[in-house]
Structure formats: C-alpha cells, structure tokens
Amino acid sequence: MEYRKIKDEDDDHDDVASDLESLKGKSHAASSNIALVGAGSNERTNWKRKGVVTCALTILTSSQAILIVWSKRAGKYEYSVTTANFLVETLKCALSLLALTRIWKNEGVTDDNRLSTTYDEVKVFPIPAALYLFKNLLQYYIFAYVDAPGYQILKNLNIISTGVLYRIILKRKLSEIQWAGFILLCCGCTTAQLNSNSDRVLQTSLPGWTMAIVMALLSGFAGVYTEAIIKKRPSRNINVQNFWLYVFGMAFNAVAIVIQDFDAVANKGFFHGYSFITVLMILNHALSGIAVSMVMKYADNIVKVYSTSVAMLLTAVVSVFLFNFHLSLAFFLGSTVVSVSVYLHSAGKLRL
After folding, report:
1. What value does the CA radius of gyration of the chain take, rounded to a whole number of Å?
2. What is the DSSP string of 72-139?
3. Which of 127, 180, 284, 338 is the most buried (most CB within 10 A)?
4. Sequence-distant (≥ 6) Cβ neighbours of residue 191 within 8 angstroms
5. pLDDT in tens, 220-239
6. Backbone φ and ψ of 194, nearest 5°
7. Any one cellular component term from GO for this entry (predicted)?
8. 194 - beta bridge partners?
9. In this predicted model, what pLDDT tens digit does every residue of 170-225 receive, in sequence order?
10. How far apart are CA 258 and CA 265, in angstroms?
11. What value does the mean pLDDT of the chain take?
12. What sign results for the dihedral spanned by CA atoms 214, 219, 224, 228?
C-alpha cells in the first residue's frame, strides 16, 4: 500500500511537470508569434513610410518647375521673385524652429540643440546662403530659355558639379562607375535637348545652357560647403544649423528686394501679383527641403534616384497638357539615359 501511494504521488508529479512543460512550450510559441507579428507590423509601417516619402518627394520635385512656369502671366512674372524667395526662406526658417520646439519639449534644451551660438560658428553660413540666393534667382530667369521638362533634365547637371567639387574640396575619391555616370549624364542632357523641328540643333539656346551650368556650379558648391560646415560639428542639431542658414538667406533676400524691387514693392505692395499658384510654388520650394531631409532619415538613396527619374517623366507628361509640350523621342531617350546615369552615380557611391 505504501509503495502504491508513493508511486501515485510520483505519477502526479510527472503529470504536473508535463503540464508545466506544455505551458512553457505554448508560451514560447505565443511569444514567437507575437514577435513575428510585431516584426511584420514594423516592416509594413516602414514600407508605408517609404512610400509616402517617395510619393511626396516625387510630386514636389516634378511640380517645382511646373509651378514656376504656371505662375507666369502673359509670359512674365507679375509678382516680385525676390519677395517670393524671401518668403520661402522665412517659411523654411519657421519650420526649422517648429522642429526645434518639438525637440526641446521632448528632450529638453542641450548644448547641441540650443539656438544660442558664437560668432565662429555662424560666420561660415553667409557663404552658402549667398550662393543659394543667386541660384534661386536664376531658376526663375532660366525659363525664358527652357521649358519645364528641359529644366528638369538640365537640373541634373548639379550632380557633376557636386561630384567634382567633392573631389577638389573634400578630397573624396570618385569611382569609375561615377565617372561613367557623369559622361552618360552629359550625353543624356544633350540628347533630350535635340530639336528636329528647327534649324537649331538644340532646343535650349546658349544663354539657357550657360545659366543651367552656372546654377549647377552654384548649387554644387553651396551643397558641398554646407556639408563641410555640418560635419565640422556633427553633434550639433541639424535644425539649428538650418535655422541660421535660413536666417542669413532671409537677410540676403531682403537686400535683394531693396536693390532689385524696392520701387515696385514700395508702390504696389509686397504681395502684388501673387496668385494661388504663386502661394503653392512658395510652399513647394519650402517643403522640398523638408522632404529631402525625410528621405535621408526614413528612406535611402535609391528613393532619391527613383523620385528624380519619375519626376522628369511626370513633368514632361503634365507639360503636354498644360503648356502644349511636344514629347519627342529624343526627349524620352535622353531622360532615360539621365535616369540610368543618376542610378550609376548612386551605385558607385554605395561601393566606395
């Protein structure tokens, strides 16, 4: 009897142990399922975020040239382009300050995110601010010589200027793939501008090409110089650095208003000639910078390549309906070559 009692107790212990093991197995399986569900949910969220950022950047990039051309009336700007640029810089400055306010609320004020600064830190910002001023003014006047799709093609010349200036100023090496991409980019831009319906070989005249090259040099030098400034103090919050850059941009644009459009602004008013399209154009220019920052944070370089390529074709298609643009085979082939060259530049950068 005693033996049977002990055996029964052992059997009960074995049953309890097996039940515990079974429960552990179920809990591990449940945990694994929860982890898989969580990973899948995060992956879907990242894809959605990338999709939203890609669409936003593509729409903003493709509509930039269209809105500038559309803001014209009878072939000229009735508003002051200097006041428009001033408002763009003001809006970007306000957006940077808003982002900083959120950071201060969540993380508090630190040495790296405070607005107070020193002369040595801010004395370098006037140079890129001045370069961006001239580049942004030129982008209005270039449309006297090129159409919106042509502008989107020629704008890619800043890839060449940026790459060469990276090599000269920052001493960065360029891969053979990137140099091949530069050559293809020149060929693509030239092919897209071929004109079979006129005595002129190229659609864009010499002044248009000259302005496009000058804009590419200004944009490239300003971008490389700004990156050098940012990386000089990498721990400094990017919104603080952007804020001071935009403050100097506002100051230089205010000087441009006084020099170029003082009489018109004084007699007709600051917002004379503004329309709904003009307001959309200003919002577009301001948000484009924010979209690029979001791409760098939430997506990758392939997204920029995709957006640039799609924007060229999207601009051309929309221009067919808005401005009676003729979508020629030369333009299609040229834009395709430009897209491939942009991809090669990106691929070469990833291999370095």
Report:
1. 28
2. -BTTB-SS-HHHHHHHHHHHHHHHHHHHHHHHHHHH---TTT-S---HHHHTTTHHHHHHHHHHHHHH
3. 338
4. 330, 333, 334, 337
5. 888 788 777 877 777 788 88
6. -65, 135
7. Golgi membrane
8. 202
9. 777 777 887 888 788 788 877 776 766 655 556 677 888 888 888 888 888 887 88
10. 9
11. 77
12. positive
Instruction: Assess whether pLDDT exceeds 70 at residue 110.
Output: yes
Domain boundaries, the chain: 2-351
Nearest 5°: the CA angle 267, 94, 220 is: 90
Q: Any idea of the CA torsion for 237, 238, 240, 242, to the nearest 10 degrees?
A: 170
What does the pLDDT look like over 39-98, one tens digit per residue? 556 666 666 666 677 777 778 888 888 899 889 887 889 999 999 999 999 999 999 899
| pTM of the shown model | 0.74
Sequence length of the chain is 352
Rounded distance, CA 139 to CA 231, Å?
A: 28
| Amino acid letter, 121 | E
Handedness of CA 313, 301, 146, 62 (dihedral sign): positive
Q: What is the Cα–Cα distance from 309 to 58, expressed in whole angstroms?
A: 9
H-helix or E-strand spanning residue 181: helix 176-192
User: CB–CB of 91/249 below 8 Å?
Assistant: no
